[in-house]
Amino acid sequence: MNSDIFLPSQVAWATGALAGGPLIRKTTRLTDLPGIFADGEAWRRGNPQQSVYDVDVLGSPAGEGALCVGVTHLHTGNVGDEFFMTRGHFHARREQGEVYFGLRGVGLLLLQTEAGDARLEEVTAGSVHIIPPFTAHRLINTGKETLSSLAVWPVIAGHDYAALAEGFALRVFTSGQGFEVRHG
């Protein structure tokens, strides 16, 4: 019997680098995040070309049942006293969940229901986070190195950023103890 064996795509667990397939990279810069940070004046003073996070996604098949695999690399930094964070979103198809796996760095995963109930989970290398359906999510880097997280989600899930035009219920700021959580 002669069967072909293919080497699948791979992730370097220590860095979050994806390899072995078509890769799409999207960089989100400070200029792409108006209204996201509490201190709008500090955001305006920042370098608009500053990279806040990069998302690398493996090329995936389309259609019902297919999954996307990607890694978010959230850089260290602050806007005012607020840590760098991803834009955050609900899924356009709210019934779709997602899974995050912490790869490197330290941070928080902010989860919020449509009713506005919010909670935080600590993200570290090896942590596993199940994002339930009907739940918005955002990564926040509270550490001193890039926070990288592998995600797996249904292709059909989509992104709904507009539903969070008023922001999340919780915000995370630097403090003498590392970070402080405040209501938005």
Automatic annotation (TrEMBL):
<keyword id="KW-0312">Gluconeogenesis</keyword>
<dbReference type="InterPro" id="IPR014710">
    <property type="entry name" value="RmlC-like_jellyroll"/>
</dbReference>
<keyword id="KW-0324">Glycolysis</keyword>
<dbReference type="GO" id="GO:0016853">
    <property type="term" value="F:isomerase activity"/>
</dbReference>
<dbReference type="InterPro" id="IPR010551">
    <property type="entry name" value="G6P_isomerase_prok"/>
</dbReference>
<comment type="pathway">
    <text>Carbohydrate degradation; glycolysis; D-glyceraldehyde 3-phosphate and glycerone phosphate from D-glucose: step 2/4.</text>
</comment>
<keyword id="KW-0413">Isomerase</keyword>
<protein>
    <recommendedName>
        <fullName>glucose-6-phosphate isomerase</fullName>
        <ecNumber>5.3.1.9</ecNumber>
    </recommendedName>
</protein>
<dbReference type="InterPro" id="IPR011051">
    <property type="entry name" value="RmlC_Cupin_sf"/>
</dbReference>
<dbReference type="Pfam" id="PF06560">
    <property type="entry name" value="GPI"/>
</dbReference>
<feature type="domain" description="Glucose-6-phosphate isomerase prokaryote">
    <location>
        <begin position="29"/>
        <end position="177"/>
    </location>
</feature>
<comment type="similarity">
    <text>Belongs to the archaeal-type GPI family.</text>
</comment>
